[in-house]
Design a protein that fits this description.
By secondary structure, the protein is α+β, with helices and mostly antiparallel strands. It has 10 helices and 10 strands. Helix 8 packs antiparallel against helix 9.
Length: 385
Amino acid sequence: MANAVRPWMTPELTTLGERSADLLSAQTAAHGERWRKQKYLDRGFWRAAGAQRLLCRSVPAEYGGGGGTLVEDLVVLSSLVDVGIAVPTVQVQSVIAPHFLVDHGSEEHKHRWLPEMAAGRVVGALAMTEAEAGSDARALTTRAVREGDEYVITGAKTFITNGSIADLVIVAALTDPAAGRDGISLFLVDTRDCAGFTVTRVIGKVGQHEADLAELAFDGVRVPADCLLGAEGSGWGMLMRQLATERLVIAATATAAIERSVELTTRHVNERIAFGRPLIANQHIRIELAECATEAAVARAFLDSCVSRLLDGNLDDTTVAMAKWWLSDLEGRITDRCLQLFGGYGYTTDYPIATLYTNARAQRIYGGTNEIMKETVGRSLTARR
């Protein structure tokens, strides 16, 4: 299945995938255990990825990026799945954070930050979520008050990917609390030597151990007024546009995880001997794996359709919501079924199926919960009266 023909794949994309797989495999073999223990990818990883031009592939070349399309980022991010590196930490660095700058930043913003992010010298993060504001970004309480040529930011954020290591944090804050979602604005906060900024906690997680997740505090953080992205009150629209991209990334990496799980399990049941014969000799094993392989093929067809529509410029947000919830939900089911076929070995960290299983769980939560995705789809089906 991993070798199935993809209508959007080109020789250049194939080469990019192979190059990213080689680097990521070498890096994980050498440093993976340390990353998981320290709960973040260190600077050596980011600089190595930047040197190989694996970061910010869809950022315009004039700003130091790869000058390609989002599909190039999807190829690199899918390679992370194969080597067991949690996708969100690189996704935020390569796609989410930089494209806020590409789409809404000033020329000064772009030239200052994007080449550094593409090179891995600056790590980025998006600080939107709060303790009482997850899928409902309109419940934000973080404030940004204009004082002369500065904004003063006060509030707290949680579940922030790259939060403990980020040099640049894009912060969602209210500039006009009375305006609801139309009062949300985005700010670029340079966390290096930033008075009032604190990483209050690095959060432990069920899986994705090498991707840091942090709680952040902004206690009267002062930023120059030109650190505002776009206009005051435009933050909600910016967030929604980037969330659609994040959901497509989740769909793509879920599909990669599904295919990887079936590939690993097929190999295992053919090699593992029980009661004097390979596991695959048992009819139940064959049926179970046949169902997984079939669903993986359907998943790939759905994703390929989405990617082709993206390249054609007609991929809509409702279809992206469908892809996000269905493929991440399927990822959870397939990794669970495949782990079962490994028996006790599957529950040990010696086998990559365990990492695929634990990493899958969060995919149904971030980027908008799957329940929110179904609501989005449902609203598109409601007749207007």
